[in-house]
Specification:
Blueprint lengths: L21 E3 L4 H25 L5 E4 L4 E6 L2 E6 L4 E7 L4 E4 L5 H15 L3 E5 L5 H4 L9 E4 L1 H12 L1 H14 L3 H14 L11 E2 L4 E5 L2 E7 L9 E5 L4 E3 L18 H13 L6 E3 L6 E2 L4 H8 L2
Parallel strand pairs: 6-7, 7-8, 8-9, 13-14
Antiparallel strand pairs: 1-10, 2-3, 3-4, 4-5, 5-6, 10-11, 11-12, 12-13, 14-15
Amino acid sequence: MRRLKLPAASGGESSICKDKDIWIRSLTPRQTAGNALAGRFIITAALISLFICMPAGIRAAGTGDFPEIRLSDRILILKHAPWAETMTVIDAGPGLIVVDTWGSPSAALKAGSRIDSIFHKSVKWVINTHHHWDHTFGNQAFPGADFIGHKNCKLDMEADYQDPEIRKTQLEAGVKLAEQASTRRYMTAVLEESSGKDFRLCPTNRFCSDRDTLRAGELSLLFYHTPGIHTRSNITVFIPELGLLFARREFAGSGPFALESGADPEMIARVLKDILASGTHILYLIPGHGDPVANPGLKEAIRYLEGL
């Protein structure tokens, strides 16, 4: 089993809640700081537990269909070529969380079988970090889950992909722009899949507003709306008990950022400051594509954003 050459980590509106998952609506900065202080001992204990079970380096393996990265016994990242799309699986106790689901429904279905064989639990929560097809078309592989994202994720999924002709036009445009043959083959295959009778678009059906928290099993998920970093539906998700941050890779660096229409650099900087204010060490930043980033500081990104 090879090891990835990455450093190991060091010390709005929603549907009716089901089972034990509870929405905690829109915390203020003061409430967030108070809750962080009150829960710091619990989070510290959880991180110590994570350190104990974490290997000396990130373990990499694979089934032949897609590589796997194990960050711990309860955190698995599956990657799909050619864009190294990430699908992250988190054991939340009574069920599993999946963050992003790739662009190929058939590949996501294979991933679902692999997930079943490892965890022997059902996927209860699927989080879409934004609406693009390479993060959402695999949703249909998890029919029993709630699909969680910003309300713009649902709106833009339906606008871009609900109508078969519009969906075809969107994907065909991507094929024409693709520079690498492997990318053209992949997008052509997705185009064929999404034109078939078995394809089902599964938009988000539970919506997070900025600074919302979802209690999913044993874990707390903090949602931040960060529009203008790639799409208007982008969300950043922080899981303090595990020290995990799901965000754009740019947040781990010092810039430049590819800011688009609707982006508010000051607001994005405040989001990163809020996460740092929790006092929780961030073990890994997990982007939508590529490998996780160990020990992301965020401070350089904040300085860059505040300087714009």
